[in-house]
Amino acid sequence: MSNVKTLLFSEKEVKRDLLNIHSIESFGTFDGPGIRYVLFLQGCPFKCLYCANPDTMKFEDGKEYRIADVVKEAMNMKSYYTNGGGVTVSGGEPCCQAKKLISLFEQLKIEGIHTALDTNGHVMNQYVKNLLELTDLVLLDVKHINDSMHEIVTGKSNHKTLEFANYLREIEKPTWLRYVLVPGLTDKPEHLHELGEYFKDFKNVEKLEIQPYHTLGEHKWEHLGMDYPLKGTPVNTKDQLDKAKEIFEQYFKEVVVN
Amino acid sequence: MSNVVTQTKQFVDGIWKEEIDVRNFVQLNITPYEGNGDFLCGPTDNTEILFDICMKAVQEELANNGVRSIDPDVISRINSHAAGYISKEHEVIVGLQTDELLKRAIKPYGGARVVEKACSEHGIQLNPQVKEMFANYIKSHNDGVFDAYTDEIRTFRSLGFLTGLPDNYARGRIIGDYRRLALYGADRLITQKEQDLQNLTGPMTDARIRLREEVNEQIKALKEIKALGSRYGLDLSRPAENAKEAVQWVYMAYLAAVKEQDGAAMSLGNVSSFLDIYIERDLQEGLITEEEAQEMIDQLVMKLRMVRHLRMEAYNEIFAGDPTWVTEAIGGLSLAGGHKVTKNSFRFLQTLYNLGPSPEPNMTVLWSSSLPKGFKEFCAKVSVDTSSIQYENDDLMRCTRNADDYGIACCVSFQEIGKHIQFFGARTNLAKTLLLAINSGRCENTGAQVINGVPALKSDVLDFDEVMANFKIAMKEVARVYVESMNIIHFMHDKYYYERAQMAFVDTDPKVNVAYGIAGLSIVADSLSAIKHAKVTAVRNEDGLAVDFKIDGEFPFYGNDNDSVDLLAVDVTSHFNKQLSAYETYKNAEPTMSILTITSNVSYGRKTGATPDGRARGIAFAPGANPMHGRDTHGAIASLNSVAKLNYEDALDGISNTMSLIPKTLGNDENSRMRNLVAILDGYFNRGAHHLNVNVLNRELLMDAMDHPEKYPQLTIRVSGYAVNFVRLSRDQQMEVLSRSFFDKF
Q1: What is the rounded distance in angstroms from the CA atom of residue A196 to the CA atom of residue B455?
Q2: How many domains does chain A have?
Q3: Which of A88, B166, B701, B707 is 20 to 30 A from B205, alpha carbon to alpha carbon?
């Protein structure tokens, strides 16, 4: 095994490179293929009504981690990556820390570790482009295909997300779309068809994952002293999930319900 | 099934023909299997009829305070009871410990008072004659030990520094090579032992005299085993001639052991691939069908599930759920290369479907990433479906111990079959030992001076180097007393409760190791981490004892793949193991140590005061080498990686880790769960880890089982090194299981 530290950075440089992290999950099985080491980065430009981790929203919160430590922990997991696993950066919105993530991904690529980026696609700049070059798989969260609905759900327009998606198509980046199905908010059949129509010819899109709506994050809103915007919204029925899957299957070769 | 015994295809000859060498027979005749479980069969009608009867009997047992019936009159020996059957006409494999299903026998040689108490707790009176005999004429192991115990050992024992010592119950852990009865027959084994005896000439040292007496006892046992066979119409004097006989012979040898002894753990060994050789031959010859092969294994396993010992209630504190540890090791590679997975490895696991999940026999897969993919995936599937399997690192044990024909003694401990035995040594409470370092060698609960020579700390703000220096003094002293207690216990056990029926199937002068243990490792690691990385102030009572600790600042917890604390656990393990190795042992047994608690982590916690990691007085420890519940915040793999750092060389008796996962966390569908579990096992063991229990369960299910035990008679969960029926645990133990880290995603 090579000595990671000497590969790219002097000790001093490494110390400067701190990621602002919300939490670490060493056993992720839903954020990319195989077993994933998932870094949840702190801070997100979106304020999704159904956010399950509202404590990741504020940029000023979080905990600083040295990239070298993250690399070390990820390297310690190498023996578990045998069925396609690797590292996923999620959030929050990881692209907000793209510049620092470049050095993380560079080191991971040198070690032959599979990298995945779970993003809402709202941030695009040269750093993000460089990061994508080092990314094996993008998990693109499309919150809503309808722009005004997108704004209701997230507080922002979906233009940037769709531009991001088109860039991924252009660079032929393997991508999984992810879609949170919220009863009464994001599950109208016409919207699902619209999303399908939009992406059906994207050859880089390998599959679509339906993320069922759950209320497990509700207590976190309360804990943070905020009102949970979707109070009373029921979780999906099996029938709703089946129907959504059926619609998406008309457009995508693989659709799974997570 | 054909009843005609014909001399079929010959086995491949080798050294095994000339000498007692089952390993050689297996190596030469095994048919490794590369495929998957598609060939497997369900239970036959006979099996189902029998198992219905068994399940009804088990329900009666549960309804009757855990014991169906007791024979308080006849002391259990190989040949003490008449033949017993579940339902004779449906049984292809016969034999029960007593004349009735689940009737428990008395074995007072370990300790007569314990047997009397166990009887009276169930409203039964021990036969007054038996009581009289052991009061006035016969000495038990327990009597012997307490005649020799020092005051110091008694203090350590009563204050909870040493707990669960096998001084009033049988030590167990010895595995007979029960395959020998099938391969050679009793007559040949007797001849061999007689030869050995002739060679045991002078000078007549203590050891030589003892061994001569022991071998004669073994010969008597073998003769009695033949008589036991006759009771069931079996001619055990000769080798088994077909598959059914091979299974039956192995079981009879094991049955003799569990009739004579009530050892805490009495493993079966490594019989499945041995039996496959006979089954494969009969299948090839067209003498049996696959369905019949499965029926034999199902019925063997059913019998093993019905093994019972009479225990008193206090025993449940350390070994909850009425375990017997009929541990069977399955799979693994051979030293020469190639693997030892056979179709019978699958058949054993298949019993968990045919008869439902179960703690017994304690199925232990000897894992290597080089095992065939079909088998690995089948194991993972069975784990996900039943939570009844544990895994041990075959690459690690095979290479470190240079042996490939081994079983697992008790829960997690290596034992080369027929060549090697071990003396079980319970465990010491390492967290309490750390508190001795902080309290000038006094017990944190009673103030009693337990050890001398520990200086008082200079300040109530704990200094790492100072505490560490004191801790080393305490470890040295505790190790000394621990070794002394073991020497006495095993001397007396050999003298008063010698395992003649098991030792008859072991080489005459086997290697011996003594298996010490520690509890509370994660508490110690976290406490040292707190002292080192944060500011810890001892809060002392008027008597000067630290009753609480005030922690300022943050510190890393063991279980997050963080070297700055994990290496403290590694160092303490290594250091204490070295202390244990510094003293002379009975029979020159090689000292080894385990990090394993069984369910005693609950009672250990109860006996331990507040610790510097912030754990309050009385709170249960984490089991085995597990990180403390809720402190492994980086998820399951980081937690595994912390445990994987502990060196097997420092704990050759085993490093137990128990992982509980919510099914959904393991993956989105059956296939991904199976593949992810295989990846976890490969990943964990390739990092040099030793052992893993895998539970795949929902917490809600366990909560429901607490409220409605009658709905879950077979619900099985893995605890430290073994499995239990969840509904047989006490409320405290159930709560402790629920409080453990269940890795879930959200």
Answers
A1: 75
A2: 1
A3: B166
